[in-house]
Amino acid sequence: MPMKDGAAAADREPVAGAPYSWFRVLAVLLLCLAAAERGEGQAAAGGTRRRAVDVGVILDRATWLGNVSWACMEMALEDFYADARHASYRTRVRLHLRDTGPSAVDAASAGVDLLKNVRVQAIVGPQTSTQAKFLAELGNKTSVPIISFSADSPSQSSSQTPYFIRTAWNDSSQAEAIASLIQKFNWREVVPVVEDDDSNTRFIPDLVGALRHVGTRVSYRCKIHSSAGDDEIRGAISSLKGNWTSVFVVRMSYQLALKFFRIAKDEGMMGQGFVWITAYGLTDIFDVVGSPALDVMNGVVGVEPYVEDTDRLQDFKQRWHEKYIKEKPGTKLNGPILSGLYAYDTAWALALAAEKARLLDSDFMPSETNNGSTDFERISTSKASEKLHDAFLKTTFPGMTGTFHIQDWKLLSTNYKIINVVGQNRKVVGFWTPGLNTSGNLKTNADLYTIIWPGGTDKVPRGWLLPANKTLKIGVPFKPGFGKFIQFENGKATGFCARVFEEVIHALPYKVPIHYEEFGDGKGESNGTYDSLVYKVYLNEFDAVVGDITILANRSLYVDFTLPYTESGVRMLVPVRDQRKKTAWTFLEPLSADLWLGAGAFFVFTGLIVWFIEHRTNHEFRGPPASQIGSVFYFSFSTLVFAHRERIVNNLTRIAVIVWLFVVLILQQSYTASLSSILTVEQLQPTVTNLDEVIRRGDYVGYLNDSFMPGLLKRLKINESKLIPFNSPEEYNDALSTGRVAVIVDEIPYLKLFLSKYCHNYTMVGPTYKFDGFGYAFPRGSPLTPEISRGILELASNGTMAELENELYGGSGTMCPDKVDSQTSSSLTLRSFLGLFMITGASSLLALVLHVGITLYDSRGHLVIACSQGSWHGSLAILSKIFHEPDNMSNTPDTDETVIANGDPIVESPWSMSNHIIENFDSYTDTGSPEEEGTPGREVSNQDPGPPSFAYMHSEG
Questions:
Q1: What whole-number distance in Å separates Cα of residue 609 and Cα of residue 606?
Q2: Average pLDDT over residues 654-663
Q3: CA atoms of 664 and 671, how far apart (whole Å)
Q4: Number of C-beta neighbours around residue 818 at 10 A
Q5: Are strands 701-704 and 723-726 parallel, antiparallel or unpaired?
Q6: CA-to-CA dists, residue 881 to 484, 585, 649, 862, 878, angstroms
Q7: Nearest CA to 548 among 477, 637, 611, 623?
Q8: How far is CA 149 from CA 58, 126, 342, 420, 774, in A?
Q9: Fewer CB within 10 Å, N side or C side of the chain?
Q10: Quick check: helix, strand or coil at residue 131?
């Protein structure tokens, strides 16, 4: 109706209204054209005309990851362009989604379609490594960046695929975090359990390298195909149960992981003693699957990138949940998984890079025309893609997961958090940072929070378990000759080696079932050498070898040895003989020739000193020359037995004699002790002292049969034809005692056992050739090796090992000394008594000097008169008379006795003594009338009030 009314009106005023209507229409058209021109001018001047940058997205919308990531990318662009800071941006990123499913071929086809038909400047989102491998090659050919926030890098290096960029943290840093956690608990062996696809192409080498760096080995890898059924998974779990290792690192998809842990729990591998560590990616399973995963993964420890829980992140999670609930009603997800946050930051980074690239219209033109025969060859490239690639690599901004920064074509890694599944919850128990490694705090070094391990215990598992229903098969060597070390009787091993092993096994905090088997043929012979027995461990025919197995370098190439539990080294065993020789002149041996001569010289010297001092005042040292010489020698040598009878009257002589008697006493006692040793103590010396002597003489050398000795002796240049093997201590004794061999070369434990029985006839000599002693052999990497080694150290520290050794050697190990140590000369030398001789010589000379000085001082007046006369002959004569003539003024005991014996106790005055002296001198010089000799009046007629001088009396003669 309105239209009809309007039409009628128009019809009623066709002429009058026509000019006005046409004018209005023309005016509107003019206004529109002006506005359009003004808008184009403003766009040219201000740059507000927006340029679309096409970006392809390849996802599998049938997966949680695909759906979550797509929603996050859409929200990222909405948030980016709604931000007032980006309102003036003249580029707009447009996403072109291709839902390809998991097929790598479909992903490659979608990539070709996007590049050829849509002419995208970048492709985002190949979810798997297989898809990324194809698309990375496509990006290299077309110079179009291929950006993935979930797939690992392909097998080629970054330099080979420069257009493939990962906007998620790389696996290398994750491998370091896992290795640091394993090092924290000192686990030495780990088994990776991974999905058999391209996602682990780079992760496994990175993990193995990181574990090797912390001293942990990977001896076994368990791979499970993504399409594996329950039976295949159960078989893989059975193979894990058959290994000693109980520490596993798991990395697989959600679906396969849920199935794997469910079967592992049914097989009893989620109990106490096991350790399960999940890599990043699998930790998202709890957000995706929820309770089913938590029920079967209790006690699991996982690592995932640390994302700070900011207000911006909380707001985004809430908005994302509202958006996702509308699109996917009934979803179990409460928020985006970590890969979704990476997708959000990737879209945001693309929007920033598109603006920073300053793209021009000419950049979008094809740079070259290809007329290839295939669609792949007809894809054109443009400068816009290369500019976008370069700008994207330089883009940095604060993202949802932290600072977004690409380094080496990967998102720069920072920190990881360590989570622990406990019940229906996940709790953070620690962190990993490049600076602190594993710690309970992000900024300081601290202990981890308590971890609840599988089985509900907080006790840290030791990292290995005995395989299910496993009894260790222990090889025992056949050793009939030295049964005290090892012997197999009635299905049981006995002897020192077996006792030490069982002491250690019983001390372990867990039970280790063992079963012994002898390495023999059942007919009294061995099945081979010790090397053959050790090689059986390498072939897994034995789980260990217990016996007198020497630790050797060539054997350690095939097995691991515990610490040695016996003394180490190789020495020679030789007979000993008594070197004592008893002859008529044996009594001279205690003192060396120089000591005999020195002692004799001091005897004579001391006698002369005593005679010189005593002969003026002591009549026992006077008389004819022959008598005086005899007195000198008799006195000096009689002091040797303290039988001298001469009386000493001078104090200086007494001092010299006392010192000399002290020296004689020491000399006598030393002589007596040395002579007793020579006559009574055995002087046992080895018949051979070194192997060079044996080689030079061409003697035969014995060794223990089935040992490594032949190789050692050949290296020591001993002719093989001179080697004779033996099997028992009795054969050793027989060969050495009969002279069949000159020496036995063997390890010290065998020799000590031999000497415990034949101690007095043999000894160990020569250098000790270094070897590591006896040890127990286990397979390479066996966790029992360090356990047994620690047990051996404990036995050594608590004294148990010493008790077992005393039982082995019968307590005589320390009672049979090494006889070569006492092979020293028993003769005493002059050097040993040089100090004593110097003391007695100095004291005797001092006494002599003092005596001479005192005598000269007392006669100084006479000497002065003699010297004043100028006759040196007279001076010498006076000196001679002073030191030669007797000093009768001294009241010697003999003189006193003579006076008493006369019966005339007349006390002589000094006058009368002087008269007597005058008479004596006159009797020698005056040959006059004999009657004057007995005339008493001569004595009375002397009226000189003082006695004549001694010099005058001598001058009279």
A1: 5
A2: 86
A3: 10
A4: 12
A5: parallel
A6: 90, 47, 20, 11, 5
A7: 477
A8: 12, 8, 6, 25, 57
A9: N
A10: helix
Query: CB-side exposure of 668: number of CA atoms within 13 Å?
Result: 12
Count of Cβ atoms closer than 10 Å to residue 543 Cβ: 20
3 state SS of 642: coil
Q: pTM above 0.85?
A: no
Residue 758 to residues 198, 203, 240, 764, 767: CA-CA distances in angstroms? 71, 65, 54, 12, 21
Q: Other C-beta atoms within 10 Å of 261: how many?
A: 26
* Tokens, residue 921: 């001198």
* 686 DSSP β-pair partners: 576
Rounded Cα gap, residues 213 and 476, in angstroms: 37
Contact 624, 632 (CB under 8 A): no
What confidence tens digit (pLDDT) does each residue in 243-296 have?
889 999 999 888 899 999 999 999 999 999 999 999 987 877 777 777 788 889
Q: How many CB atoms lie within 10 A of CB 267?
A: 16
Which residue in this structure is represented by tokens 């060859």?
Answer: 377
Tell me the pLDDT tens digit for each residue of 199-223. Answer: 777 788 889 999 999 999 898 899 9
Q: What is the Cα–Cα distance from 703 to 710, expressed in whole angstroms?
A: 8
Beta-carbon contacts of residue 792 (< 8 Å; ≥ 6 apart):
500, 504, 562, 563, 565, 801
Alpha-carbon 311 to chain mean position: 50
Half-sphere exposure of 353 (CA within 13 A, CB side): 29
Cα–Cα distance measured from residue 285 to residue 851, given in angstroms and rounded to the nearest whole number = 116
Helix (H/G/I), strand (E/B), else coil: 344? helix
Q: Which residues pair with 914 in a beta bridge?
A: none
How far is residue 127's CA from residue 23's CA, in Å, rounded to a whole number?
63
Q: Is the pLDDT of residue 536 over 70?
A: yes
CA distance 14 to 62: 66
Whole-angstrom Cα distance, residue 88 to residue 90? 6
Q: Which of the residue ranges 227-231, 633-637, 699-703, 798-802 would you say has the lowest mean pLDDT? A: 633-637
Residue 882 has pLDDT above 90, yes or no: no
The predicted pLDDT at position 500 comes to 95
Q: Kind of pairing, strands 402-407 and 396-399?
A: antiparallel
- Indicate the residue type of 694: V
H-helix segments, 143-226: 171-184, 203-213
Residue holding tokens 């028992």?
A: 728
Structure tokens at 583: 């002859």
CA distances from 859 to 369, 757, 823, 887 (A): 144, 82, 62, 12
Report which residue type is found at 157: S
Amino acid 660: pLDDT: 86
Q: Where are the beta strands (DSSP E) in 35-160?
A: 51-59, 91-99, 122-124, 146-148
CA-closest candidate to residue 917, choices 939, 899, 895: 939
> What are the beta bridge partners of residue 815?
none
Exposure string for 217-229, b = 16+ CB within 10 A, e = fewer: ebebebebeeebe
The pLDDT of residue 125 is 79
Angle at 599 between CA 597 and CA 603, to 5 degrees: 115
Over the stretch 491-505, which tens digit does the pLDDT of each residue have? 899 999 999 999 999
593-614 and 651-680 helices cross at what angle (nearest 10)? 160
Dump pLDDT digits (tens) for 588-634: 778 888 888 988 888 888 888 888 888 777 777 777 777 777 777 77
